[in-house]
Amino acid sequence: MIFAKLRTMLKELFVPNAKPRPSVFLTMVACQVLFLLLLWLFYPLQLFPTLGEVLASFKDLVTTQGLIQELWASLTTALGALAIATVLALAISYLTALPFFRPIAYAASKMRYLTLTGLTFFMALMLNSGHQVKLSVLVFGATVYLVTGMTSVILTTTQEEMDHARTLGMSEWRSFYEVVVLGKLDEMLEVVRQNFAIIWTMITLVETLYQSEGGIGLLLYKQNRYLHLAGVVAIQLIILATGALQDYLFGFLRGLFFPYSELSVAK
Amino acid sequence: MADHTYKNPILTLRDVSMQFGGEVVLRDISLDVLDVVRPGVSQGQVVGFYGRSGIGKSVLCRIIAGLLPPSTGTVQVANPQRPVCPGDVGFVQQRYPLFNHRTLLDNLLVAAGRKHAPTEAKTRAEEFLTRFDLAPHRRKYPAQLSGGQRQRAAIAQQLLCSEHLIILDEPFSGLDIAMIDEVKKIILEVTMADELNTVVIVSHDLATTTALSDTLWLLGPERDAANQCLPGATISKKHQYNLAEMGLAWQPGIQAKPEFVQLIEHLKDEIRKS
Questions:
Q1: Closest by alpha carbon to B4, among B261, B242, B236?
Q2: What is the pTM of this model?
Q3: Which has the least CB within 10 A, A3, B103, B131, B170?
Q4: What's the mean pLDDT in A101-127?
């Protein structure tokens, strides 16, 4: 009886597009996490630090090296950069409605191929403080990725959508505002969510170049430099958890402000 | 005394042609929709519009709706006649587009707000919600509506802000019998609401559309004297059917009449030939 039930539950997890019950799904996730932890506990790879070492290192990082303060410093810088980059990217993307500005958006999108180190050098020549250089590099890096994502969202606008607005007697600007600006705001937020990870990748690099303000990137650099592998893993896990929390918050905000956005998604 | 007379023009197309990249899609289309007046009856007009898939029906609809300027020719609407502008002609496209980020009530309000002051717009939107049996769904988003509700909402939205002319692109496509009856009822309601209201139905459902119409247009290619196919589709004089003159309009149960059945067969043959 129990085996038959278990077999049905397992079957649910391996059928394409199946919708397992939430309790089954959560149990499966818990089992997968437990399996990974057990694997880590009992079969430690020689190069990879053990769970105990990582936990001890985490405690040390928090108590003696100010992990929380450094994380906060990086997080506020990242959020500031993201806010500025979002405003810039939205402006550049929306301006693609005017043919005059399309080359700018195209160029901005292609600039994501520029290397960060070379960019930092130019920023350092132009700006005075380390903080400004750090912020401007992050803003630049995030903007070019956001513009790429946002313009591709704008390009999904169909003739039918624009015609619909025009048949209601809306001017070209009003149609654009209704269909592209208001109609795709939820998708823009999704682009921001997806590209926030880019800032975390960049911030760790930029903080090592400009060490005066500290940050989690600098902490990571120090752990790497002194081969404190347990510390490296602990910091990576903290960044991972912060990222996951951010993703959740963005999802929450999307549901709160744009309740319609998930209605037509297949579940 | 005749049972109907014709008064002012509602829609006039003169020598409308359309080319895309040198390819002629539509050629020399001239059409007139006049206000048909029946003594003792206040009823608008219904035009059935047929043509094979891909022949240019949607292009002509967009031209009539003022969304696409023709390569040559003119489209005039209203009384007195003036060149069509976007917003003059309602156009309910095949997938019944609505603003997905607005609730149903907001969708109607944004349309009503184009022509009326806020208080009046609110009253009109509420009135249309009730008239189209959508009042219980006012707070829902379009994604939460059924196909039929969405269609009614799209028609209501267009009626709230367009002049008297509305184009319905494939209104019967994919609907069951009960839903088709519902849409037919809505179309009749729209035409009964104002003498000048005119509905153009683009459809492949010949019997249903013809039974509702007083005029038919058949878009297709034409041949010259040497029997060579001319480039681009057109609606020739012989493919503009005045059902009122033929005694095949405004009759309940018309579909059972032998003349009606003959006309449908004739239309099918003409479409096959094109």
A1: B242
A2: 0.85
A3: A3
A4: 83
Phi–psi pair at A164, nearest 5 degrees: -60, -45
A43 to chain B, any CB pair closer than 8 A? The answer is no
How many secondary structure helices (H) and strands (E) does chain A include?
12, 0
Min Cα distance B103 → chain A (Å) is 9
Tokens of A60: 């040390």
pLDDT band for position A266 (cuts 50, 70, 90) = low
Q: For the segment B179-189, what is each residue's pLDDT rounded down to a tens digit?
A: 888 888 889 98
Residues B155 and B210 in one domain: no
Domain definitions of chain A by residue range: 51-257
* Number of CB atoms found within 10 A of residue A159's CB: 12
Q: Any idea which residue has 């880019």 for tokens?
A: A198
| Domain around B151 | 95-162
Mutate to test the interface with A, among B61, B91, B101, B105 (most CBs of A within 10 A): B101
Cβ proximity of B201 and B125 under 8 Å: no
Confidence (pLDDT) at B1 = 45
SS (H, E, C) A199-213: HHHHHHHHHHHCHHH
Distance from C-alpha of B127 to C-alpha of B117, rounded to nearest angstrom? 15
A65-95 pLDDT per residue, tens: 989 999 999 999 999 999 999 999 999 999 9
CATH number for the domain formed by residue range(s) A51-257: 1.10.3720.10
Residues 6+ apart with CB under 8 A from A163: B62, B65, B67, B91, B93, B97
